[in-house]
């Protein structure tokens, strides 16, 4: 999972697809049991890394670009 360093929201993002991307850009996401996001873009599933996020994901909450850090809720429980 990914947390915005600016507004602290978790996994609130939109993808910026390349302007020359040819597909429809249908995008969905789910979380696996290791708290990793699995993205699905037009049927292609992958686990984004931090580098991908900081290049392609915009915070839906505050609009920040490139402000993501990894976040694992299991390690944050008290
Ligand atoms: Zn944010």
Structural overview:
- This protein has one domain.
- Helices cover 9% and strands 32% of the residues.
- It has one helix at 50-56; strands at 2-4, 13-15, 27-31, 37-41, 44-46, 57-59, 68-70.
- The radius of gyration is 13 Å and the shape is globular.
- The site of zinc ion has 8 residues, from loops.
Task: For the structure shown, list the relevant keywords.
single chain; 78 residues; 3-stranded antiparallel beta sheet; two-stranded antiparallel ribbon; 32% strand; binds zinc ion
Average pLDDT for all residues: 92
How many whole angstroms does the radius of gyration measure? 13 Å
Order of adjacent strands in the largest pleated sheet: 3-4-5
Task: Catalogue the unreliable spans.
Answer: none
What class would the helix/strand composition place it in?
Answer: mainly beta
Could you give the order of the helices and strands?
EEEEEHEE
Q: Name the beta content range.
A: 25-35%
The count of β-strands is: 7
As for the number of domains, it is 1
General shape:
globular
Ligands in the model, by name, code or SMILES, are:
zinc ion
Counted by DSSP, the helix tally is 1
Helix content: under 10%
End-to-end distance, in Å?
Answer: 18 Å
| Biggest sheet overview | 3 strands, antiparallel
Helix and strand topology:
Blueprint: E1 2-4, E2 13-15, E3 27-31, E4 37-41, E5 44-46, H1 50-56, E6 57-59, E7 68-70
Antiparallel strand pairs: 1-7, 2-6, 3-4, 4-5
The protein binds zinc ion.
Zinc ion binds next to loops.
């Amino acid at each position: 999972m990914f947390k915005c360093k600016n507004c602290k929201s978790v996994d609130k993002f939109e993808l910026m697809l390349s302007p020359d991307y040819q597909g429809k850009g249908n995008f969905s996401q789910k979380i696996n049991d290791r708290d990793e996001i699995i993205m699905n873009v037009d049927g292609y599933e992958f686990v984004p890394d931090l580098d991908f996020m900081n290049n392609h994901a915009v915070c839906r909450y505050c609009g920040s670009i490139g402000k993501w850090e990894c976040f694992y809720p299991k390690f944050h429980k008290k």
